[in-house]
Design a protein that fits this description.
Oligomer: single chain
Distance between the termini: 39 Å
Strand content: 5-15%
Radius of gyration: 26 Å
């Protein structure tokens, strides 16, 4: 089985004698950029999201906008603008949280945290989803109270500030849109910015109508509509991040297809203890026991298997245990 030359893999294995002449070897393959796992060598991994500049720009722009929006809201006696400034402040906190997870997640594994702190990105995505839902709840509650008795709105001032909000949040969301497709933590940051841009757009459109009609009830109604759309989108983020926090199989990985590939490998007669989970919002891990009566097939074959699992199924960190099948093994997780 050939191995692409642009990857460097090292296999760490240990052979243990078992009754009836059987033996098993645990083959451990993974990639890490510039980190060392164990004492045997270097490993290279797909670098998690590199959005440092995007986070800096987005946090700076939104922090300035929060100050401007609150100032204009206070000057125009607009509780709507001041409330939205508070919502945007929660978005800044969400961006800081997501960025901190990216930075912390790059720390090398240690004796205590053998996977490093990659899973912090899962916690950040979960926290961001909860922050979004809390912000939507606060805005929805305020809007619902205003439906029956809508206050007069300084339409021109609100429209001008909201237009700035579209530009700031739209630019911020655009910087994260590419990474949002493959990293749940980045998707959380993207959804914060996209939600704010949508909210600002709704404010501008309702402001135009209110300017010419005086229908001030339109402001809370538009807010409730946008909140409903944001909640619908955020629910998926919350569900997916919660699944990853509970070590579920990442949604982009087809577990039956992985199992079928492993069972069809030359020399494999059985397979058990297959586990796949997310180490972070962009990296996954796999462990499995492969029954191969002829014994350990060699490092080159193991490297080929792990390369295929990486390239075809997006599994980045693999640990394969080879057994001859002379002893029946059962997964301890199923022995309850």
């Amino acid at each position: 089985m050939s191995i692409p030359h642009h990857h460097d893999h090292h296999v760490h294995g240990s052979t243990h004698d078992v009754p009836n002449g059987g033996a098993h070897r645990a083959a451990h393959n993974h990639d890490h950029h510039g980190s060392r796992c164990g004492a045997g060598g270097h490993h290279h991994h797909v670098d998690p999201s590199t959005h440092g500049r995007a986070f800096v720009v987005a946090i700076a722009l939104n922090s300035i906008f929060v100050a401007v929006e609150f100032g204009y809201g206070f000057a125009a006696n607009s509780t709507a603008l001041m409330a939205d400034a508070g919502h945007n402040l929660s978005d800044v906190l969400g961006l800081i949280l997501a960025w901190a997870a990216v930075v912390v997640g790059r720390r090398s594994p240690s004796e205590r945290f053998t996977y490093g702190l990659r899973s912090s990105s899962i916690l950040a995505a979960l926290a961001n989803a909860m922050l979004l839902l809390m912000a939507c709840g606060a805005i929805g509650w305020e809007a619902a109270q205003r439906v029956s008795q809508p206050p007069a709105v300084a339409s021109v001032t609100v429209m001008a500030v909201a237009t700035i909000g579209i530009l700031v949040n739209g630019l911020s969301a655009w910087m994260f849109v590419k990474g949002s497709a493959r990293d749940l933590n980045i998707r959380g940051a993207y959804m914060h910015m996209a939600a704010d841009a949508a909210m600002s757009l709704g404010v501008v459109l309702s402001g135009v109508v209110m300017l010419f009609t005086g229908w001030f009830w339109l402001d809370p109604l538009v807010s409730l509509t946008i909140v409903a759309v944001i909640v619908a989108g955020t629910w998926g983020l919350l569900r997916e991040s919660l699944h990853l926090a509970l070590n579920a199989v990442p949604p982009h990985i087809d577990l039956p297809a992985v199992a079928a590939y492993l069972r069809e490998l030359p020399g494999v007669t059985d397979m058990h203890d297959l586990h796949i989970w997310g180490m972070s919002t962009s990296e996954s891990a796999l462990t499995v026991h492969l029954v191969m009566p002829d014994g350990y097939p060699g490092d080159r074959v193991i490297d080929g298997i792990t390369q295929t699992l990486n390239q075809r199924f997006a599994v980045h960190h693999c640990t394969l245990q080879i057994e001859r099948g002379t002893i029946r093994h059962a997964c301890s997780l199923l022995a309850s």
